[in-house]
Design brief:
By secondary structure, the chain is mostly helical. It has one domain. It is built from twelve helices and no strands. The longest helix has 27 residues.
Length: 279
């Protein structure tokens, strides 16, 4: 059944909302099993669900294919662990905005066009304003975790393209998430040891549906209708959605300077996407 012209953008926005809501509600487990324990539990359940759905086969895969899936799993583990450690220390909207420098960097990497300097300057100004506007209240360790998450997200984007070509359907994602759960296990179990009661384990299953199972399904449905150009521009709204979710669900209100900073990063991302697709 074909999606209507308004339905596909709605699914893309819903996907981002699920990602941010999933991150927000995950913080309810931080006090019980820590950010790393929560990240590991979510990755483990996501791997179980996708392995059951995709039933991937490793037969016939080259060493390069398997190496890419392994690297994607490491990047996924780093992204999830660092982002959860970041939002345990700094507001969700700020962490998402810093993390979003990863995909923005991928969009601008290797460009030699003078006009792209505008997007770099806008993004840089946004981050400078974001950290300066927060003052001493912004935990530098949280900022560092968010920056590492940005690097992991950049690697995730590049590796996903490689793995997506090598594995059919959801097979590559299932394999990489299994690797991610294994990589995250030492840090996760160190924080969660002794607190994995049935209620916590069940909560982890729900978090896995919020992120990544449902968002990924929504993105696939949206991309059947949307061009990658339009989808990329819509994805640029994710920092703003993070701010809204942080305010509504966590009571994390940002100052005017910080909101303006998020707006600069969103504008830089949308501009870079439009310029890249239009060249």
């Amino acid at each position: 059944m074909a999606l209507g012209p308004a339905a596909a953008p709605g699914l893309a926005l819903a996907s981002m909302a699920f990602v941010q809501v999933g991150a927000a509600v995950s913080q309810g487990l931080f006090a019980r099993i820590g950010p790393a324990g929560t990240a590991w539990l979510r990755l483990s359940w996501a791997a179980v669900v996708l392995l059951a759905i995709a039933r991937p086969s490793l037969r016939g895969r080259t060493r390069g294919d398997l190496g890419a899936a392994l690297a994607l799993g490491v990047a996924s583990a780093g992204l999830t662990l660092c982002f959860f450690e970041a939002i345990a220390r700094i507001p969700l909207g700020i962490a998402t905005t810093i993390e979003f420098l990863g995909p923005l960097g991928v969009a601008l990497a290797g460009s030699r066009r003078v006009r792209d300097v505008v997007w770099v300057v806008l993004a840089g100004a946004g981050i400078a304003l974001l950290t300066e506007g927060a003052g001493a209240a912004l935990d530098p360790v949280g900022v560092l975790y968010a920056a590492v998450a940005a690097c992991c997200w950049a690697a995730y984007i590049l590796l996903t393209q490689r793995v997506g070509r090598a594995f059919p359907g959801l097979g590559g994602l299932a394999v990489s998430l299994t690797v991610a759960a294994v990589v995250a296990a030492p840090a996760g179990l160190a924080q969660a040891a002794g607190a994995l009661d049935p209620g916590v384990v069940a909560a982890g299953a729900g978090l896995a549906l919020l992120l990544p199972v449902i968002p990924y399904a929504l993105e696939l449905a949206a991309l059947r209708t949307l061009s990658t150009r339009v989808f990329g521009v819509l994805m640029s709204l994710e920092p703003a959605i993070g701010v809204a979710v942080g305010l509504v669900l966590l009571g994390q209100a940002l100052g005017a300077a910080q909101v303006a900073a998020v707006g600069l990063v969103v504008l830089a991302s949308a501009g870079a996407t439009l310029a890249d697709r239009g060249s």
